[in-house]
Amino acid sequence: MLLAGSLAKGTALRSLNDIDVACYISGADAPGDVPKLLNYLAERLRKAFANFSPEQVKPNTYSVTVSFKGSGLDVDVVPILYNGDPDWYGNLVSQDNGSFLATCIPRHLEFIKKRKQAHETDFAQNRTAHKVLGTESEARA
Question: Are strands 74-82 and 18-25 parallel, antiparallel or unpaired?
Fold first, then answer.
């Protein structure tokens, strides 16, 4: 599992409601069908969080949400089908159409880190403005 999303990129707002985590899944028994893959992941998360109620681990359209009652924090676990690539490339489910997209979380985070270092002030102001205005998807480009 790898931290992903705004927290990993250093662009999270001060009030944190959710954390995005990428979960690399490999093995012959890992389903290639999206709904089955999400249920597969949810079953394993329920085993890992055995003291959680079933409604605290919920498969969604493209991820599985683990909800922590005491803090109100939600962890969105995004499955990435992994075939052993040494650079950690895998396939994640597209939120646009449900197809699989090639991705590499470590390389994505490194790209963001370098861009942020090169444009510290502008990068931070741009991300914050998009979040405040509710246009965060535009800032992801």
Answer: parallel
